[in-house]
Structures are given as C-alpha cells and as structure tokens.
Write a structure and sequence with these properties.
single chain; about 450 residues; alpha/beta; Rossmann fold; six-stranded parallel beta sheet; six-stranded mixed beta sheet; about 15% strand; binds nicotinamide-adenine-dinucleotide; binds zinc ion; histidinol dehydrogenase activity; EC 1.1.1.23; oxidoreductase; Histidinol_DH_monofunct
Length: about 450
C-alpha cells in the first residue's frame, strides 16, 4: 500500500473523530507509523513559504513589517514592541509567585549539575591541551502561548542560561494573551530577563535572528513553539544559534497490566491539550487495556468543545498500539523516538535499559509526564519529530560554547609532534602548512627549548 493510501486511510479515521488503533502484527503496521510521522513532518510547504516571505519583508521593512504581521496573525495593533522588565511585586499573586520560585529552585538544582569545568592536561610530549567553556553573550527566549503564555517555558530557558553566565536575556511572547501581566513581569524579573518583546509567532523568531529597529539581534534563540515557530527556527539556523526543533508535543505511554487505566487515559488525554497536532500514543501488550483507554478518552471527547486542541489531536494523532512482544514494543518506541516517554509498568527501570531514543523518560506510575512539564526540575524544552534519536533537550551547555586550547610551550614539544604534522600536510598537498612547522624546527634562538 502506498503512503498516499495510508494518508487516505488516516483521513477516514479523522473524519470519524476516532483515534487510530494498530496491532504490531498487522502487515501495514510499519507503513502506518511511517505515515503518521511523515504527516507531522513533511506537510509543511505552505508554512515554509510563509516564513520565507516573512523573512524577506522583515529584512526590508523592519519594525513596520513586524507590526503588519502582528496585526495579520494576532490581530494586535499596538505599536509598543518592547517593554523593559522592572522588579515590582506589588499587586502580584504571591501564592503563584511562590510556586514559580519553587520551579526556579528545582530547575537551578537540576541544571547546576550540568555545569562543566574547564579542563587542561599536559601530555607526554609536553603539549598542553584544554577545553574552556564560555557563555554566549545574548539569547532570545521564545515563550509560547497556548491559552496564555507558558511562564514555565521562560524559566526552562532562563535558568540554565543564567547558570551558564549569559548577561543579556530577552523574551518574546504574544504579550496580549497574558492574563496576569504583573505575575509574568515578576517572573521575568526573577529570571533575569532584560526586556520583553510584546509579540510572538514566527515573526518574533525572525526579528530576534536578524535584528530590527527595536529588536536586538541575539546569539541564540531557545524555547518551544508550534509548527510556525519551529519552521522559522529551522530557517534562521546558521544566522543565529538554535537550541533545537522543539515543535508540537509528543507523548508515548507504555502501560502494562499493573497500570491504572483511568490514570493512563487522563495522562494520554492531558498531553493532547498542547496543540492540535500533539501526538499521544499508548503502547501495551494487553488489548483490553488499549480498548479501555480508547473508550475512556472517546467518552471524554463528548464533553470537550468541538474546536478544542484535544479533539483535533485525538483524531489526528491519537494512537493505541498493541504489541505482541517486547522486541516489537522497543522497536516501535525507536521508530517514534518521542519527546516524552512514560513507562507506566512494574519493571520500568529494567525497561529503561532498552530505550535509546526519547527526550525525557518518566519512570513508574507516580511520575506522569505533567510533572516534567512543570516542576520536576528537568527541562521541558525537548526536541520532537524523531530528533530525540540524535539530539537532547535543552541544558546549560546549550548556552555556552567550548573552545579548544592548544599550547606547545617549548620547541621540544613542537619537535615531538612535527613529523606527523608535516607528513600529513604534504600528503594533502598543503606545502605551506608543512613549511609553517618546518621553518620553526631549525631556529636556534627561540625562547624556550
Ligand atoms: N517540544 C517542547 O519542548 C514543547 C514544550 C512546550 C510547548 N510545546 C509546544 O508549543 C506549542 C505552543 O503552541 P501555540 O500555538 O499555543 O503557541 P505559539 O506561541 O507557539 O504560537 C502562537 C503564534 O503562532 C502564530 N500563528 C498561529 N497561526 C498562524 C498561521 N496560520 N500562520 C502564521 N503564524 C501563525 C501566531 O503569531 C500566534 O501568536 C505547542 O505546539 C506545544 O506542543 C512544545
Ligand atoms: Zn504536557
């Protein structure tokens, strides 16, 4: 069956507002999984075209183009594009602020363990080699706005950035959507943010990458977002650093007989709240578990508004898979390589040994993915779309660069490695490279032998 036929079949399920169900022994199993992955990753030509045009206009018309896009995409007419962050907690909901402070402390504790010391060593030829780590000078944090901006995402980028030693931290977010602006401002101040750009969307990513009259060009952009944000980050990569492509959320839950069906159903449905293209997959060896979870979520769907994220994502990218063996189960996880993986099984730690491709792994029934979204302490900015197979989520090291340091302190140390250098240079037809070493070897008045 062709990939086109698979898409048509997927469409039929979607029209019926049903999630897809698969069995690993079905002959079409691999094609269906590939079809779903392709559907989430490839179907973006119109988005790429929009981003290309946006880049052209922002480069040409700067703030004017930004304002035009703010009006067109978000219906925002304000000319105020930047607000300086002041430390002011008057009128702030202190209970909420206290909970954000807890998030701050937990993130600080987790990420401080990622800091790496500079290293130096002297080898037996007397060559001094080292690695030194330096912070970037400025970053732009994109804070996405599901219903209202995800303040937690600001902390997820700002805390490791501050630990790395970054001096200038800017935030861009659809400010008009913020319900509690005082709380947002107080949190921005706790995070050490210098100023807030009051607009989001892909235009914010392009502005931070290129700079405009109002927006300062930054070294790197971090933070998650929807497909438009992710496409803009992808396009800007190279002109600006990008943390990774952290697009619409993905969750896989593996449940065995010991898992509580109600909890699994709620956990799976919860992760559909993020986006209309959120992916939520249940993998189990127990067919009864799969059908019970499906009917729980189908019942829930009758209660939610027809245009809600949950309703769309359940019929677009909701999936239950019954695997007949552990080998199939691990292969399926590898194929999907999800952002989040919850092992809701009695042997979760044992299973973890076999998992190589997931952004965050949640172990056991009391560790739902939601704790990772908020206050567990790990970073929730994680790559998606099979990227977890070869790349990790945000960490302190994303805000630093490593420099190699090379010092040959004496002529003797240069002599000791000169032969392979000259030999290799000559073999690569780089005569002057060979000469740059050769001309030093016979000089007798060098300082330091
Ligand atoms: N992978 C991760 O680490 C992670 C973590 C948290 C959230 N997320 C994801 O972040 C995303 C948040 O999405 P969101 O949409 O609520 O907020 P968002 O801030 O990512 O995007 C909203 C903006 O997108 C722009 N936009 C909307 N429709 C557009 C269109 N048709 N053309 C051009 N621009 C358009 C608008 O400017 C709007 O303000 C979700 O996909 C969620 O899953 C991912
Ligand atoms: Zn979530």
């Amino acid at each position: 069956m062709s990939i086109r036929m698979i898409f048509l079949l997927l469409l039929t399920y979607r029209k019926q507002n049903m999630c897809l169900r698969l069995r690993s022994d079905s002959p079409l199993f691999n094609k269906f999984i590939d079809g779903i992955i392709a559907d989430r990753t490839l179907n973006t030509q119109h988005v790429d075209d929009l981003i290309e045009r946006m880049e052209e206009l922002i480069s040409k018309y700067s703030d004017k183009a930004l304002m035009a896009y703010n009006k067109r995409l978000d219906n925002v007419t304000s000319r105020l594009l930047r607000i300086k962050v002041e430390h002011d907690v008057s009128g702030v909901d202190l209970r909420a602020l206290f909970e954000f402070k807890t998030l701050y402390d937990r993130l600080l504790s987790y990420h401080s363990r990622q800091l790496i010391r500079d290293t130096f060593y002297v080898d037996k030829e007397g060559v001094i080699l080292g690695s030194v780590w330096k912070p970037l000078s400025s970053i732009g944090i994109y804070v996405p706005c599901e219903e209202t901006p995800n303040i937690s995402s600001m902390f997820m980028s700002a805390i490791p950035a501050r630990l790395a030693g970054i001096k200038h931290i800017y935030v861009a977010t659809p400010y008009h959507k913020i319900k509690d602006k005082r709380l947002f401002m107080a949190c921005a101040s706790i995070c050490g943010v210098e100023c807030i750009y009051t607009f989001g969307g892909p235009q914010a990513i392009i502005a931070l990458a290129l700079g405009t009259e109002t927006v300062k060009k930054v070294d790197k952009i971090t933070g998650p977002g929807n497909i438009y944000i992710t496409a803009a980050k992808k396009r800007m990569f190279g002109r600006v650093g990008i943390d990774g492509l952290a697009g619409p959320s993905e969750s896989v839950i593996i449940a065995d007989k010991s898992a509580d069906t109600q909890q699994v159903s709620v956990d799976l449905a919860a992760q559909l709240e993020h986006d209309k293209s959120a992916l939520a997959v249940l993998i189990t060896k127990t067919p009864k578990k799969a059908s019970a979870v499906r009917s729980n979520i189908n019942a829930l769907m009758k209660l939610v508004p027809s245009d809600s994220n949950i309703k769309h994502s359940w019929s677009n990218y909701g999936l239950t898979i019954v695997c007949k063996s552990s080998t199939f189960l691990y292969n399926t996880v590898k194929k999907i390589s999800p952002e989040h993986l919850h092992l809701n099984t009695s042997n979760a730690f044992e299973m973890m040994k076999w998992i190589h491709s997931a952004g965050s792994i949640f172990i056991g029934r009391h560790s739902p993915i939601t704790v990772g979204d908020y206050a567990a302490g790990c970073n929730h900015v994680l790559t998606t779309n099979i990227i977890p197979r070869f790349s990790s989520g945000l960490s302190v090291l994303d805000f630093m660069t490593r420099k190699s340091v090379i010092c040959l302190p004496t002529l003797r140390s240069l002599r000791s490695i000169s032969t392979p250098c000259i030999e290799l240079a000559l073999r690569e037809n780089m005569d002057l490279h060979a000469l740059s070493i050769g001309c030093r070897l016979h000089v007798t008045n060098n300082v330091g032998h």
